[in-house]
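Hey,
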Amino acid sequence: MSATVVSVHVSPTHTFSKSSTPAIELVEGVGVRGDAHAGATVKHRSRVAANPSQPNLRQVHLIHAELLEDLGGAGHQVAPGELGENITTAGIELLELPVGTRLHIADAVVIVTGLRNPCQQINDFQPGLLKKVLHKDDSGQVHKLAGVMGVVARSGTVRPGEAIAVELPPAPHFALTGV
């Protein structure tokens, strides 16, 4: 299966879920035009409270549709956009990408910066859901499954159905960590 955009989402306010839309405009160095998390510096409320001048490594949030299918199999019905992502993808192992991977989507380029840190808001959305997207394996390793974050390196419009081309960074590759 080739990598594609399933749906795109935006919210002008700090709501947990984002509304589906026919297209989003990615703005270089800023994020999704009209989204509450767009900006060169952090916009996530807890990060603004800690240090409002830190760079925004969370301009674009991507989640793989396969996660939503897995959650459905575990009894949680979650539609695209409901976990707050801007872009829902299919056919790409987002969580396995190394830091610095460039995702080419139409004319836009998103550079993957890290993993989304799942928070209590996920349980507020659906009780028990946090344990499905943030859990420890038998060896004690923590797994964050709620998608990846990125920054916009080249502006462009993204629509459902667009192909996603993956460009890995030069070696050595570094695993994603929370941002």
